[in-house]
Amino acid sequence: MNALRKPRYRVDLIGLQALCETNYWRLLKLMPAMHEQDERRITLDAGDGQPQALQMRVLERCRYTSTLLLAHERNHEWVTPPSMEVRLYHDAGLAEVVAAYNSRRFRGVYPYPNEQMLQPDEKYQLNQFLGEWLGYCQRHGQSAQPFSFVQ
């Protein structure tokens, strides 16, 4: 009897690029002065009375790229809040997760199962999570500096 095989995962390059482009514009909206400003803190209201915030810090600034560290600040005894490094490609208008979970440089496809327990589409999932996280911050965030749209 042949076991049913799941079809091999194939990278949706157009979908990944569209996601990275959307994340780029979300980041610019949350931190419009990133070319001059080194940090930005956005206070979040989750409705549970617990203080939390998104801390955005520029790690590296080059002519065509910038690298940001995004860290969610909230005290939990049982879970580590998410944090990730995101590289922004200003010439292409893309933002890509380059580090998360103490890992760097994610491949487009992973064999499954693997020793790191990464999903076949781990890179896509991390960038999708970034988009959801930034969208949440846009809807529920408060900042001493106004949010604006950069053109």
TrEMBL record:
Pfam families (UniProt xref) = DUF1249
The taxonomy runs: Bacteria, Pseudomonadati, Pseudomonadota, Gammaproteobacteria, Pseudomonadales
> Which superkingdom does the taxonomy of this entry point to?
Bacteria
- Check the record and name the InterPro entries matching this protein: DUF1249
Q: What is this protein called?
A: DUF1249 domain-containing protein
